[in-house]
Structures are given as C-alpha cells and as structure tokens.
Amino acid sequence: RIRHSILVSDYMDDNKKKSIKINNFSEIFEKYDSIICDIWGVIHNGQELFSSSVDCLYDLKNKGYPIILVSNAPRPGEEIKLILEKMGLKKNCYDKIITSGDLTQKILNDGSLGQNCYHIGPDRDLKIFEGIKVNRVSFDKSDFIFITGLFNDEEEDENTYLPLLKEGKKRKLKLLCANPDIWVQRGSDLIPCAGAISKKYESIGGEVINIGKPFRPIFDEAIKNINSLGKGKFSSTIVIGDGIDTDIKGANDYKLDSLLTLGGLFSGQKIDEVYKMINNKKVFPTYLIEELIY
Questions:
Q1: Is residue 187 over pLDDT 90?
Q2: Which of 34, 108, 139, 239 has its CA 20 to 30 A from that of 224?
Q3: Is the pTM of this model over 0.85?
Q4: 195-218: per-residue pLDDT in tens?
C-alpha cells in the first residue's frame, strides 16, 4: 500500500536543503521519464539480488522508461551483464550498462599516460586489459600507477599501500583509478575499494585521475544513451543510487534529481545518522527510500 511522502526536516534547519522521504517509487514516477541507476548496493549486495529493485526497474521499463545502469566497476559492461545473469537476473529490466571500466579502457588506449603501468588490483579485474595497448610491469619500470582495487580487500586497506604511494609521488607518477568508490557492500560487510587508495595518494600530494561516478564523463555517456533511445524526447532523468559521494554527488553536480537508497552502504544505520552525513557532506538527494520498491 502506498503511503504519503514525509518531508525530512527534523534534522535540518531552514538554511539547509530538504530531502523527501518516500516509501514507494510510484509516488514520484510521473515526474520523470528516464532513469540512471547504480548496480552494486541498489540491484545487489555483491552476493544476492534485491528482488524488489529488480521488479521496480522491470515495471518502469515496461512503462517505457529508458533505464541505464551505471557502475564504478573496473570491468567492461558486458562482463557486468554476465555477472548479473549468473546472480540470477533474468528479467529485462534495463537498456544498457555503462561502467567506469568501459571509459578507463579508452583512456588507457589513447596513450596519454604512457605504455607501462603498475597495476594494483585483484586478478578478477584483469579483463580490463583485453584489447588494451598498455603493459603491466613492475613498479620500477612503470610510467603510471593503475588501480582497479586492492590485491586483498578483506585483509588490506589504503594504508597498506602508503610506502608505495610515497615512492610514486617522489617519481611524480600519475595514478589512474578505475573505481572511485571508497567502500562497497559485500553481503553485510563494507569492503575498501580503489577509491580509498586514490584518495590517500591525493592526500599526500599525488596527481590522480578518477574515472566513473561522481565525475561528469560517465553521466555524459549515460545521458547520450538515453537520448539515443528516445531520439531526444526524454528530458527528466532521475539518478538512483546508494552512494552519497558517487551517485548523489554526481547527480548534484550534473543538476539531476536523485533518489538515495538506504539498503546498501547505509544498511543498518539510523536515519538521523544518514541525515547528519548528508548535511555534513553538503550532498543532497532529492529523495530517500529504504529500498527500491515500485
């Protein structure tokens, strides 16, 4: 049953923006005609699909909404499609997947960073090198540092790499990060991502290039795909995601409305803690919802 929206103002003074707490997407769906949606944290938690989110996107696609899934995964979109299918995604609930991996491959191939990289990341990310004219070499022989993740994200964090990062700064190496996420949900745990290392390198004065959300190019690509599907007839897009620093900040910067889902990175947090973080970061979703339900 659909309940009315609640204006979230208990934790915000008059000088701060207000987000609207909703219970169902159907409360707002008539305001929008197209969707950019995060994957990890909205559609699944790294281990299983969120059936309500899949059903919601499926219903919206059947109503004619173009739906572009946008991910900071450092892998090609086609690989993410296969991963979703292996997780059991059978419903046709989206039109296209765009990943930071797709955009990163273009940068690697343009040769602007050099031909030799020192790669930090697990073996599962190696498909990003397929069709790429860049060599993986030892740190001493590298032209730049390329990060897709941590070697062991269950035992390491960004500080593990601090000695290497300090040496990279001395050599004035640029750091290319294919996944700006700081954390990602895996089941009930939060796991550090490549973005944590990128942020650490930047904090010691290193030069970083971050690909993916919240940065403009990946949203440009999503909007371009929406326009190609509707031949320009779509003009009111909403961004759905669970990341304040990625999905919602990207939407804010792009001047798009957004819906923050609270079942991913915010899982288990009290609502007042969520509001406090929103205000502290000055990154404001248009709406909040516990989980994506139509």
A1: no
A2: 108
A3: no
A4: 999 999 999 999 999 999 999 999
